[in-house]
Design goal:
By secondary structure, this protein is mostly helical. It contains 10 helices and no strands. One of its GO terms (cellular component) is endomembrane system.
Length: 251
């Protein structure tokens, strides 16, 4: 996300621009799902390639294991993400029902909670009482305020199906890339591994760059940070396979 100029900031903070922006419904972002799926997909398959090469297995074995894990782990991660987001939504609905029940049964106590919540923000006296009165006069606003201020729940709800689909898709795309050199059997296992390493490094760096563009982070640092994270996982897999190769006497 490119930082706006001072002129742009001034234009965006005019009354009409603010009103338009606030009236626009916030859409849930899926960049975190894409980053999660991309990194984990690439780490999963390249770790298998590195571990297989370290153990002295053939490219065909690494390819079979890689694609088997690609689809199985991708589906597992998508389902896990779906269930996690679904659980968050269910928790939010449970908290909503609880707050609505409390407002019905102990409205004075709920108003006191509003009073203390905004008192902690520095409001006091007649201003504080005006806030309490205003919020408690609108039932929906009252409930939403309690969900945000007391329970710390976000107002924008994620779509579990959409998040799962994004995670699964990026997992498959990023995870398939390190496996591509293994199809070229004429290259030899060492060249295949070198190309797989280069492609995996490019994927990790690209994901880091994507994060930097979205979150306005330094481009090189974000790319290298993700590259080092993925590279560490791959190096661990390679060393594990290499050591176990000698432990079990695999030729």
């Amino acid at each position: 996300m490119k930082k706006p100029s001072l002129e742009t900031l001034y234009r965006e903070h005019q009354p009409e621009a603010i009103k338009k922006r606030l009236n626009h419904k916030n859409e849930p972002q899926t960049i975190s799902d894409a980053v999660l799926g991309g990194i984990d997909g690439c780490v999963t398959t390249f770790a298998i390639v590195a571990g297989a090469v370290g153990a002295g297995f053939s490219a065909s074995v690494a390819l079979i294991m890689g694609f088997a894990n690609l689809f199985a782990d991708g589906f597992s991660m998508a389902v896990s993400n779906y269930e996690a987001i679904k659980a968050q939504r269910e928790f939010r609905e449970q908290a909503r029902r609880m707050e609505e029940e409390h407002i019905d049964k102990v409205p004075a106590g709920e108003r006191e909670e509003i009073r203390q919540l905004f008192s902690r923000k520095g409001f006091s006296g007649s201003i504080l009482e005006a806030i309490v009165t205003t919020i408690s006069q609108d039932r929906q606003l009252w409930v939403e305020t309690m969900l945000i201020e007391e329970h710390g729940l976000q107002t924008v709800e994620l779509n579990p199906t959409r998040s799962a689909a994004v995670t699964f898709t990026t997992f498959l795309i990023a995870g398939a890339i390190p496996l591509l050199p293994l199809f070229f059997t004429s290259l030899g296992i060492q060249r295949q591994f070198f190309l797989s390493t280069a492609l995996a490094a490019a994927v990790f760096f690209s994901i880091g760059m994507l994060k930097s563009l979205v979150f306005a982070q330094p481009l090189l640092r974000a790319g290298l940070g993700t590259l080092l994270t993925g590279g560490a996982a791959a190096a661990l897999a390679y060393l594990t396979g290499y050591l176990l190769r000698y432990v079990f006497g695999i030729e």
